Amino acid sequence: MNTLGYVLLSIISIRPYTGYELVQIMAAASWKANHSQIYPLLSKLEQQEMLSFEYVEQIGKPNKKIYSITEKGEEALKDWIVSESPDPIIRDEFMMKIYAMKLIDTNTAKSLIEKRLAIFEEKVTSREATLQAIEKNHQETLKDITSKQFGRYIFFKRKHQMEKEEISWCKWVLSLIDDYSKTKD
Amino acid sequence: MNTLGYVLLSIISIRPYTGYELVQIMAAASWKANHSQIYPLLSKLEQQEMLSFEYVEQIGKPNKKIYSITEKGEEALKDWIVSESPDPIIRDEFMMKIYAMKLIDTNTAKSLIEKRLAIFEEKVTSREATLQAIEKNHQETLKDITSKQFGRYIFFKRKHQMEKEEISWCKWVLSLIDDYSKTKD
DNA sequence: TTTGTATATATCAATATTTACATATGTTTA
DNA sequence: TAAACATATGTAAATATTGATATATACAAA
């Protein structure tokens, strides 16, 4: 099995999901995976008996397959969890553009960073809504590190923290740009 | 040209580099790219006249090609910089394992997080060495946002901040684990 | 003395990921 | 009222990425 397969098992271990939902969960986790990758992989995992699915017929909406983890899947997942984790891969085009910032003029640079700031402010808003929902619905179990929600909760907390830091970094860079502009007057 | 091509142009826009050095720079930027990807791409960029290289013969070491950006490369790079940036992709296996943390026992979880903490403490140490070197060698130009070092400097500052935050998150999770362990006594 | 590491580049095969094509219905927006 | 969007799954082709093999020298460690 490949890494994405284990990642899907990890998410489904919390509760059953459809492929459609998994695409969105992966995107929210910044691990973008297209449905063209997710659907065939779920089929494969089902054939390998790591997952099972329930076919749900719907009216007014397309039918769906709700995947659950099997015992075999859980065992495979456990082995993966305790295995060595490679260094995280961060492919952030914006940050790589920053590297060559001196090539563009100050106003353009400023507006690029302002845009980044706005994007992350939106991310923080929606992340906070998710966190508040978890805190509201699972308040008693959040201190129970063996609860199903715990892992998901601390995961989102880390994402939230990261997004907040991006905002403060953007503001810091904007202040440097402003300081520089003043000395040029 | 593909995204990695632009990223290489971005780095080379600061100063000329060899393919070998670029592999290491990419790794330090968490954008891992193997030499099997870098070398053919540099050749292609040279053929497209985005880059030029100087062949340097060495004694006791293999010969090398030092790539510099051309005017054409710089124009292409500028266009890329002002284009829309897709959302960052973060493929962090450790964080996806955290999702399913409840499957493993408390002590195993604790040691996984301690290991993550140790890895990031090392990252911070080496990042701080890099930052101090930049601050020492370019102290006058660091406030000049049009200097070549500025982009690289604020890039590394962001990486440093991110790594520090990872450490504080690990410590927070460890404290939650300890609190839970106490309530279980 | 052999094995591993650092320096340096190159290519091939295997795998993973992205982009495009395909289908179908209900709701929302211009 | 037509176009876009959300729900839902699927496949095929193109592209990107990883892992392996290849070559060569110097140096350090086992």
From TrEMBL, chains A, B:
PANTHER family: TRANSCRIPTIONAL REGULATOR YQJI, TRANSCRIPTIONAL REGULATORY PROTEIN. It holds the Pfam family Vir_act_alpha_C. InterPro entries: Tscrpt_reg_PadR_C, Tscrpt_reg_PadR_N, WH-like_DNA-bd_sf, WH_DNA-bd_sf. Residues 90-177 form the Transcription regulator PadR C-terminal domain. Residues 8-78 form the Transcription regulator PadR N-terminal domain. This is PadR family transcriptional regulator.
